[in-house]
Amino acid sequence: xxxxxxxxxxxxxxxxxxxxxxxxxxxxxxxxFDFIWYDDQVHLFQNPYLTPxxxxxVVHLWREPYEKLYIPLSYTVFALxxxxxxxxxPVAGSDSGALLDPHxxxxxxxxxxxxxxxLVFWIIRRWVKRDIPAxxxxxxxxxxxxxxxxxxxxxxxxxxxxxxxxxxxxxxxIAGRKGDTAGAIRPAFYIGATxxxxxxxxxxxxxxxxxxxALLIDYMIEPRPWRxxxxxxxxxxxxxxxxxxxxxxxxxxxxxxxxxxLYRPLIAGDAxxxxxxxxxxxxxxxxxxxxxxxxxxASHQAYFxxxxxxxxxxxxxxxxxxxxWLALSGLVMVAGLLPVLGLVPFVFQTTxxxxxxxxxxxxxxPAIILAILTSKMSQRTxxxxxxxxxxxxxxxxxxxxxxxxxxxxxxxxxxxxPDSPFIFIGIxxxxxxxxxxxxxxxxxxxATKNHPISPDAYFNLGSAYEALGKLDDADAAYQIAISxxxxxxxxxxxxxxxxxxRGNVLKAMEWYDKAHAVTPKLPRLNYNVGNAFMxxxxxxxxxxxxxxxxxxxxxxxxxxxxxxxxxxxxxxLQEAADMMTKAISVGAPKASWYSNLAYIHARLGKVDxxxxxxxxxxxxxxxxxxxxxxxxxxxx
Length: 636
Prior knowledge:
The chain is built from 32 helices and no strands. With 636 residues, the chain is mostly helical. Helix content is 70%, strand content 0%.
């Protein structure tokens, strides 16, 4: 090996180590963070198919969408992490109550993001052919505050995984060149790239942009004939189109989130202006910008903001002969954002058209521009770029601190975005978890005021009213939720719950039937149906309902408790004991659960077990009369 080869390898090793260290320095602390009461409960610690995961539950996630999302590969990875991070008790100080170690999931996000940064480095280095400019460009991708949400938010493992597979497919596609002028690709590389692309789509539908990114990036490095791109990437585009049609059926966009087709270019222009401004000056970053299409049009910003991206585009066109890479890199950014610009309505527009995580892959475009600039300009320019990256890194570290837990996130978000309904919903969730229902109610009232068209806000408002015993007010809130979204299964279910609380079993069952019609496998629906059957004295039907709930939601302890009570009353004592033991193992046990288990074991003649469980009940509640009576009876 000559000295030149040695220098090249040393430079490459240094570049890789530098990228890894920068990712760890900026995001390493997030490994100690908690879950967030914003989608983490949906995807993980309240996901009935992952608490705990089983082969059957994972297979189900491959067969059917969950929460209107078909991302089976991401849920499979989540399932694996759930197995690794399973805990007997929640992490001390956690406000999620999850029997999962959040640090396992955060560490996975850091690993995925670092791997993505290394793949971006490979792509940029292939173009600029110099390590230091490639590292500088890669670090813009890696440490910009736009990326914090994707790395620090556990739920966005989906996006990171999809990005990893998309980037890997692009790398394999480019690396498979045969080097001839015809632009042919080695079959093994093409098949591998295609399989990775399909896997990316199964991780998150946002990977539909992969064919466009592959085309633009490959064209920048070394153009192939357009007929070659049509032949090689045409099948990828067809797969993308098919997925878009399927997922739009699974995730219909509510009509209240849509605007007329003539207004959509204005919405897209506003979104591009938003991203361009924060790309240069990342200020007032948020997890909810509340820039819905109607809000943007009402503020009249959209009628002027489009001038920013149009001006930039004109500049790129005018400079295309001297700086052709500038326009192509800009197109890479636009391609990365294309599905979420608002040209085609998408579900999150009920909250906002723009979000930091949408810039994840789109950041490749600015990263390429910075790398090329630093490779062509003076040393002073390179130093200036490094200073900017240091400032961006500091901003990302500060931004990441907001994601420590739900309380920290809401505290950081509220002063800068006081009109965001989802911040108040998040604060309300935390208060509901603590049992402070009156304070939670106040937060949900603000959320509905700030966002009067929000089924989630009204559902949570109803939940707080119900917890406070204000059933009529709860019904009114739930009715608004289902009127805004007729497929909102939880709203129907809770209307059944309020009727059951009043003792109206038949009316409750009517609402439960409606909930089942729109969401057949809604978590806790069978549990509530079981309670209704118990109230009607139909214990066999109730037991069957609780058993169905256990199949769907294996970590929901009350289903085991109620099933155990029915089994004990039917003298099926050993089955009852097994059910109650399971309840204690999967939930935060109550004194009554231990006293019930002690009673069952006493009837089975297991005196030592009964005595031990009665003592556990009294530790939790010294006034538990049933446990005290059992101990007294056993001492005779």
